[in-house]
Structure formats: structure tokens, C-alpha cells
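Board notes (copied after class):
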Amino acid sequence: MKIVASAGRPEIAVVYIGELADGRLVEFVEALQPPAPREDKWILLVSTMCGCPVGCKMCDAGGSFGGLLSHEAIFDQIDMLIRKRFPDGRVPSRQFKVQFARMGEPAYNMEVLDVMEGLPLRYQVPGFMPSVSTIAPEGTDTFFERLLALKRERFAGGRFQFQFSVHSTNESRRRNLIPVKTWDFARMASYGERFFDQNDRKISLNFALISDSPLDAKILLDYFDPRIFLVKLTPLNPTYRAREHRLSSGIDPSRPREGEEVAAKLEKEGYQVILSIGEVEENLIGSNCGQYLRRHLEEKNRLENGYSYQMREEDGAGG
């Protein structure tokens, strides 16, 4: 794979644009979680598709779809990042998290599971933790059943991170934000109860808080057991699609108290809550969820609060 451009800071996050052998372009990210050093936690976010067919209203990767990526193409991204930092293939990070979350809904691509299974055989990665975030689309039962079996066999005991992207407790609003048919809350809860075993990490219910999208703790309690599920709250990241759809964040990263008030209501109902504000600079780099540098490069009316890092054009093979 040839790396054609990158943007960011190694001490926070770097986004890469890579050209595959067939000429398609993919984006992938390496990130840290300051103040933790790379030795403690290293995060890779890799693409599972070229673009995404879903078209969530807050995600710049949606709206154009260039096909699924093979497991070789997914590994191309991981290979480049690992060999760049650790040429001998041994990743010493105590937590080495690979998120299949840059571009594409992972449940549409069975080869994601081949990568999860094969990565510990390809490298020395004692801290490896796969991470899957999904909208739970209809018609993907085979993926989820194999994922369940793989987690139980290879990644039990807290070594897997699983997340449902929910965004609103109002079903019609969720369908508006995520314009494909997905599992309803009852089915998500049922699968989560099967997925969760003793000593596993709780399953995350992710809400990118949008100002006019309800988050009702009572509705969550009707479906999601706080002993199994936690709630993750994030700001709505600045994206072109969010601007086009006039979506505004329910949390201002510069005023985290807004998120703390929402979190307190959920905690009162028994939920563990993660308020994930992150580094504001990640928005400027374009490394946050939903951001997509290729869209930015093609945009004439540029965002003011995102994607402001200068792209570095490169001319060299990454792996």
C-alpha cells in the first residue's frame, strides 16, 4: 500500500490516506489517549469499506461507497501502522486496541472477523483488544453469530470492546439519523445479554448527543440492564454532513458541565456512564468518528471548527 497523505500529531492522532493496489483510497488512524503513553495504550482505527453505504446524517464517510475491503486490504492498514512503530512486529502496549471504525459498518463485512482472528497469529500482541461499534443493521445475523463465537473463544474476560451506536432513545429519530433498517432496542438488548459473560467489559450504548435527539433513561431501562450495558456520551463531532443536516451538538466540548448533567440523570437510574469528550484537537486533525479527510479535501465551503491541520503529501510505500 502506498501512503499518499497524512495529517496530525503523533502525540495525539495521525490520519493516513492510503492507496491500495487496485487504486482505491482508504483512511486509517493511529491515536493515543493523553496523558497515557503509547506503552500503556495505543489505538488503531481501520476502515472496513471504501466509504460507507449507510449515510448516517452526521458521518462524512457516508454517501459514497466503493466496496468492501478484503481482509488483506484491512491488514494493509494495520501492517503499515505496526511496522512504522514496531518493525519487529511486537507491540508492547499494555492495551493495543484495534477499532474497526474508520470507514464502513463492520457488520456488513465478514472479513473483519478473519482479521480479528488472524491478527494475534501475525504479530506479537499480548495487549490486543478488538473493538466493534455497530448500528446493528438488519440482515447481518451471520456476522453477529460468528462474532459471538469468536469473542467467547478468543477474547473473553474483558478483552473485547463492543458498542451499539444508538444516538437517540426515540426510535423514529434514530431511523432518521441512521437511514437503513436496524435492529430495534429489544433485539439489541437480547443479543447483548447473550454476548455478555462474567468478567467481560460492559457493552456500550453510544450516544453522540444531538440537541434535538431525546435520550430518556426510563426508555433505556425498559430494555437495557445496567448490569450489562453502560452509556457512553460524546459530543457530535463537526462534520460537513452534520452541517448540511443542521445538526448541533448537545455537548459543547468547551463546557463539559452540560454532559455531566445528562450523565447524572443516567447514573441516578443505575447506569455506569462514560463522558467521552476527548481532545478538541482531534476534530482539527479529522481523526474523530464521522470525520473523513477526503470529503474535506473536496469541499469548497470549509468548516471552521474541524479539519484545520495541513495535509502532508507523501510519496512512499507503507507496506
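Comment from the instructor: The chain has a mean pLDDT of 89. The radius of gyration is 19 Å.
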